[in-house]
Amino acid sequence: MTALKTLVQLEYSRFSPSRQGKSKSILIGLSLFCVMVLVGMYLPATRATQRSPFIFAALLLWTVTLGLSTLHILAFQGQQHREWFLSFPHSRLTLLYAKVASLLKHSLNITLLVMASAVAVYALSALAGRYAPLPAGELIYMLAAYTLFIIATLPLAVVWGLAITLLMRARKAAVLLVIPYNLLWLLPLIYASLLSSSALGLKGVEYASPSAVLMYALALILIGWPFCYFLMPLIARNGLGTMGELRSAALPSSANSRWGKNAKTNTFTIRKAPFTTLFRLHTSRVRRIEKHPNILILKLAVPLLSIAAGYYGSTDGLAIQSVARLLFMLPVLFGFLWMVSRSSIERKQLPWLLGFPQSRLAVLLSGVAAVWVTVMRIIIVLALSAFAGSIIGFITGKIDLHNLSYALTWLLFSFLLYTLTLTITFGLMQAEYYLMKSSALSLLLLPIVLLGTLHSVLINRFMIPKEMHSGLMPDWSLLGWIAVIGLPLAACCIFAGAKYYHLILTPQKKAAAQTKQA
């Protein structure tokens, strides 16, 4: 057995389905299969075509694989075995190859489940009369084309997720990767939103045909795979290779402590309110990240893009409806992914946080509030920039007063709608800690995860009328119903999650006990 194969098995075993037990793994797999089939059958409605299940399967797998790779490398920095893993007598590139191979194996397991769900959705939709079933030859051809395309995208998604370590390095070369990195994250999501929009007739597009998909797969293999091959040494040297230095750089010193050079300005005194103290502790980490050169570039570029979107989108009624949704959809999705990764990244610090002389509700709520405030700052900046773009269009004579009023109405409605979506989703996610009481209850976390990842599709399905036209006004009563039903439910989830916040430490205790027994 080669060293690389041993490392791959070691990495894969950390999250292998066999660790959960055979019966539990089968139960989780069947539950995920049923949920995906139900979601696939319910959401597309009458606009579904024979290709729809496989298009959304490809988009889902790209997002899941990229997110899994990104969260894995971000969580690796705070794990206790980091120095142990980096001390292996192998090059950083070999260790990185092991991580990539392990993530690819996990991604292939997910691919089998998602593609099986897509085939089931296709079959049930054909039986339900949504569309005519394809001949056997065409169906096999389409299935083979999309399967090859998905397999071609998996290595690119894994390596591109690991490439986030390059963006975390304050180097000039890393600035060049900011725009393409974020575009590859967001383009599939934008495409999914466009497919779900009833204002756009994309169900017959030729660029989603099996022949075109095969050409995309060939292009990815010929261009994307060599790009990943040449990118991996850079990640190994400047990303993974520098992780051993992060802990020593984070330790306090006489010249520059962990909280900054001026200790007086960063000292949390007992005169502060308990919640304010914890909130400032969490936001201090965000402020450090905001000083990164790449983040500063995004702070300057994003408002300008939002102004341009408001300026040009206000000229057409259908355009401003799509712009208003796309503008706020991405920050909400970013906040959801951040909240998902937060529990794994900060798990190591939870014993320290739970040791504070504050209630668990204050500890939990302060961390959630720090993420919520940060995402809301992004949403407010986008909203104000879009408002400014529409007003500039009115001042320059590009639009009249009626179009300005119509554009501001949809922007305000979308701002309030996605603010409610963000708040309710964050609250519901805190039920995770209560659901850890038992394995059966943990299955209820799947609808919450789907709510966060598919919120734009749900909004297009339930909040936006099926027949879109210029001059259509939003239904403000729906916001009231969402607030009346969703906010109390989110509050109950927060209180329940705070009561069982300590259960997230149970896997760590079990792992420590197993290590001692070994």
From TrEMBL:
<keyword id="KW-0472">Membrane</keyword>
<feature type="transmembrane region" description="Helical">
    <location>
        <begin position="478"/>
        <end position="501"/>
    </location>
</feature>
<feature type="transmembrane region" description="Helical">
    <location>
        <begin position="318"/>
        <end position="340"/>
    </location>
</feature>
<keyword id="KW-1133">Transmembrane helix</keyword>
<feature type="transmembrane region" description="Helical">
    <location>
        <begin position="140"/>
        <end position="167"/>
    </location>
</feature>
<feature type="transmembrane region" description="Helical">
    <location>
        <begin position="295"/>
        <end position="312"/>
    </location>
</feature>
<protein>
    <recommendedName>
        <fullName>ABC transporter permease</fullName>
    </recommendedName>
</protein>
<keyword id="KW-0812">Transmembrane</keyword>
<feature type="transmembrane region" description="Helical">
    <location>
        <begin position="214"/>
        <end position="236"/>
    </location>
</feature>
<feature type="transmembrane region" description="Helical">
    <location>
        <begin position="406"/>
        <end position="428"/>
    </location>
</feature>
<feature type="transmembrane region" description="Helical">
    <location>
        <begin position="108"/>
        <end position="128"/>
    </location>
</feature>
<feature type="transmembrane region" description="Helical">
    <location>
        <begin position="440"/>
        <end position="458"/>
    </location>
</feature>
<feature type="transmembrane region" description="Helical">
    <location>
        <begin position="25"/>
        <end position="43"/>
    </location>
</feature>
<feature type="transmembrane region" description="Helical">
    <location>
        <begin position="174"/>
        <end position="194"/>
    </location>
</feature>
<feature type="transmembrane region" description="Helical">
    <location>
        <begin position="55"/>
        <end position="76"/>
    </location>
</feature>
<feature type="transmembrane region" description="Helical">
    <location>
        <begin position="361"/>
        <end position="394"/>
    </location>
</feature>
